[in-house]
Amino acid sequence: MSLDLQRYPLAEAYDELVDKDHVPRPAARALLEYLQELGDEQLQARRAAVDAAIVTMGITFTIYSDGENIDRPWPFDPIPRIMTGTEWWRIERGLKQRLTALNLFIDDLYNAQRVVRDKVFPAELLASSRNFRKDCTGVLPRFGVWAHICGTDLVRDRDGTVYVLEDNLRVPSGVSYMLENRLLMKSFLPELFEACPILPIDAYTAQLYEMLAALSPRQGERPVIAVLTPGVYNSAYFEHSYLAQQMGADLVEGADLVMGVDDCVYTKTIDGLRRVDVIYRRIDDDFLDPDTFRPDSVLGVRGLMRAWRRGKVGIANAPGAGVADDKVVYTFVPKLIRYYLGEDPIIPNVPSYLCMDEAERGYVLANLDKLVVKPANESGGYGMLVGPHASPLERVRCAERVRADPRNYMAQPTLALSTAPTLVGDSWAPRHVDLRPFVLQSSGICVTTGGLTRVAMREGSLVVNSSQGGGSKDTWIVEGRD
Amino acid sequence: MLSRVAEHLYWMARSLERAEDTARLIIATSRVLLDLPRGASFGWDVLVRIVGLNRRFDESYPSHDEGNIMRFLVADLGNPSSILSCIQAARENSRRLRDVLPRACWERINAMYLNARADAARITGRSDRNCMLEELIMRRQGIDGLLSECMSHDIAYQFIRLGEHLERADMTTRIVDIHAAVLVPRQQVPEDPTIALLWVGVLRSLSAFQMYRRHGNVQITSAGVVNFLVKDAHFPRSVRYCLDKIESHLSELPHHATSLRALRRTQRLVDGMNLDSLAPAVRHEYLDAVQSDLARIHDEVAQGYFHYCDDQSGPLRTEAA
Asked: Which of A337, A453, B293, B301 could form a cystine bridge with A101, CB 3.0-4.6 A?
């Protein structure tokens, strides 16, 4: 074989690298020409080298259903996804705008609740929100920021429009894979990095460190930062240790931490207790503090919430930030941007139907075969129904769930997610992709250059979630126009 | 340094050392076996006795044949001291240490594990087995070099070397004790040529043959070999050398008084031993005493560093007050 653009089986969707006449988009021309010239043997040899590197480097992602095997190699596709700088800088502005508004919203909900009094956000929605934490009311975190790290999922529809699909404000993962993908890419196609103006992405860990350091209650001293992980069996453990390593922070488990009678948090060291200033927690609110949340949690630290409320320790993301990470709240974000910032949203939402609204619910139930139905509070694609791909029985079950708990569901039209050329066997084929950039906010705000491109490895599949067997690609932002 | 991290470092190092020492022991024994005259009393079960696992072995295996012993010592994940178990343990420990160790360290231990797992099926053939074990030793040495040359010799490093030398000292006493394990019941004359062969095997298993010839004695005598492996100050696998290393690593750690006391006691014990004229049974008791002492040093280290904060709420309350 060898790769031949004329025989690339374009699907109906928008392709990120190839236009409908099988011509490379300008930013992708150098890459596609290079790949076609590379030749089968070279291509396969490099692919094998990359696969071997993934296993040896131990870049893994755990899938819970995979039994004892906690080391599933990270599925990586070596053909990058490319976006032009012009398009990207607009998206970046949109992401900053969105997270700024979301943080103003969260801070408002836990304090004055202006947005509810002004009837922009319905009181009954707030009352029924599972992620609204009463224990967080009245807290004023530094800079008024609650969601310090946000992973926003972007998708592109048939006509080329980029939409926000969801905001992940609890413990979004994937950024380490974004960084590792770039390393792998440099060994797969080193020549192209000379030929193409590909923007670097490696500022992230330093930015993450700066962002976290700004949350320290003891300003002026070098802060002690700890990454709190649920442990080695967590699906994203690789990422937790990776980030700790890159920042020179301590990677801690709940049992390594203890509260002092002074309400400060300490780590247990070989030389006694050492105060921790900032915790980058990678465990859910529910497990943070058995005194406040789930009493059976062994992952967290007893009394941690008290320390945080008293300003003795910074926590990122702040407890309670997940209130805005709710697929029903999501539908209000365009309104929230207008309300808090007086601006029009730069990146649109996917049109959505709220099942709590009777008329919209009627539409959803009548059109389950066309829609994607999502529960408000699940992440990782769990509990989701992709109507056109579901069996009649699955649709009936879904309708029952929606009727039983309408507040907890929303639906969106099935987008024809854009595709990108992906190596399949010894050829390439279009596979659906999304894009997860990461936004950091504390004293300032910044965005990763590009993000993690996730790819649904099965033909026709729209599910890109890593926990559902999706893979990923390196994402290139190249200077230049569309 | 987190107590938990210190503990992982220590056990990672001990596991790697145990895997390497076991590999050395098997290679050397295989060689000795080839040289033995017909009828000499020497069986593979010696290996299991040296590592102190004879009871566990007897529980799971019906006979002491070479295949069973090799499976048990190399590939049996039910035996926590098998080579594969040790490498796996080192890997699981180092997985939690990625933020402390040089990045390549995890990659190398991971590669070592993947390699050993793939090779484990080939252990029954002697030649394949030798290749596998030799490679394992080389990989281990690579990891060692990486740590010594690419990692700051910080507190984390001290815990690695501490675990390594404790394990090595223990293993050396066991290997030296092979003499008791094999020949004591037969009461042979001390300088029987078969015994000399065994001592060559012992020296080889510790890569000590050449150095013994150079710095010890050209003659292979029981007393000469035992003295060299227990009391030589410069050979890196001798008990005395390991104890000196443990001393210097402990000295780098905070509040080390108690562990150093236990260490010095062991040093005195070793220094005071007269190994020239002892009957094998007495020598066995001496070596046994050293092993108990090493276990005590381990206990002091665990108490003083891994469980340091568990035992005292004191500093916490003082700081608050």
From this structure: A337
